[in-house]
Amino acid sequence: MSIGVIEVPTRRALLVQKIEEQILTGKLRAGDSLPSERQLQEETHISKTMIHAALVELEQKGFLEITPRRGAVVANYTETGTMETLNARIRLNGGNMTAKQTRSFLEARIAIEGAALRRLAERRTDEDLAYLEQILAQADALLEREKSDDAALADALFRFHRGICLRSGNEFFPLLLNEFRPIIMEFWMRSIAVFGAASNVHLAKRYLELIRAGDAEGAFHRLERSVNEYLSCLDEQ
Amino acid sequence: MSIGVIEVPTRRALLVQKIEEQILTGKLRAGDSLPSERQLQEETHISKTMIHAALVELEQKGFLEITPRRGAVVANYTETGTMETLNARIRLNGGNMTAKQTRSFLEARIAIEGAALRRLAERRTDEDLAYLEQILAQADALLEREKSDDAALADALFRFHRGICLRSGNEFFPLLLNEFRPIIMEFWMRSIAVFGAASNVHLAKRYLELIRAGDAEGAFHRLERSVNEYLSCLDEQ
DNA sequence: TCCAGTAATTGGTCCGACCAAAAGGACGGG
DNA sequence: CCCGTCCTTTTGGTCGGACCAATTACTGGA
Known about the structure:
The structure is a homodimer of 237-residue chains. The first copy, chain A, has helices at 11-24, 37-44, 48-60, 77-80, 83-92, 99-123, 126-144, 150-167, 173-195, 197-212, 216-236, and strands spanning 64-67, 71-74. With 237 residues, chain A is mainly α. Chain A has a two-stranded antiparallel sheet. In chain A, α7 runs antiparallel to α10 (197-212). The relative contact order of chain A is 0.09. Chain B binds a DNA duplex (30 and 30 nucleotides) through α2 and α3.
């Protein structure tokens, strides 16, 4: 057990976190208006510049709606919520997704990556295969090392699956994966912990072979099956 | 033709827009580094506080990568790009998607909304149906009016289809639709222009009936068919 | 040639003051 | 009693200067 880097949070980050908490725990509800920036300044003893910066950050994350000279109100995140909002919600929960969130995530994964997988298997080129092979070679190199680096391997797995979306020719799929990134990385870290590093890389190679063979349905069903395996392993715990 | 609301953009927004333009038009390429914040301050006569805020915003949008004390470089948006990045790209192009983007969008729509549709049809409750009916009632009310308001109708259609995702029980799908929002709204505006307002509302009612009947496959194929119709109509133009 | 020491530069944070627009009263004519 | 006009207050948005810590670039001596 190492202590690791100790980072001092900034006042602004703390303020953002505090307001996020109030919203996510329901103390602040959609439609509620926040105190004015000056009032917050007095309460918190933080300069108005930083108060303002924090509120703008929360607006960009989809938590608030700011109208100039009218104030900030808590947004209804059914209306404005994005992946950013969800990431914050998960972070608040100590980085753990609820069972429902996990299921939702995997369902979304099948929908998006499944579609990409099908398309890619149908129209893969040599260039596509080379692109994916190169990422797997990096993953193999990571396996060879004596010191295992799970984070680097998870990153490689992420890039492999994003590569599938990228090479499917659809311009939206890889962007969606980028949006999901923190969640997907967490997923792979867990998968490595449960099934082992080698097993995950081996599975990736299976996908590549199915794509090479042009077996769209086979690749899709492989995805469905591995997701279900993951789910049943999760249920056991 | 009405003039509409005139909103004064903030300096920060203008700076963000300008840098976005430079990146999207290729004047700034991935890997290029930006001038330092102080240099930008001199060039633009905008205070460093605002310069910094603008750069951070661009980082959150996936256009830049900022390293403390090293500067900001233009990001490779394969790596960092999000829906926000794509929205900006489309906005720069006058709100028009390329043919490939349109195809990608519709493919993503089938993947996501199709999955939601299937799930919802299998496990819909009376509450779910009432929720969707209520949105369609609003759409009907809009149709009755003598003055047609396409934007309001497009919004209702958006909320109906987001409602499908919301009521599917998957926590990710509605968030994804929010992320897509500007693009989806553009899509519905176009669909209203091509097929007419009544026709679009009528189609929505068909989905609702298929969901009510629990016909998951029927609903899914309805979606596929209407997407293909839209595509072939687009090809004709 | 090398290296320690230093000066300059960088992004990140913070402050207190000011601006223009909007909201809310106060006032006065009808 | 009503309604427009004027003025004060409050609001978010902006500014320029300051400081910090880390990095980089340079410089002088061994």
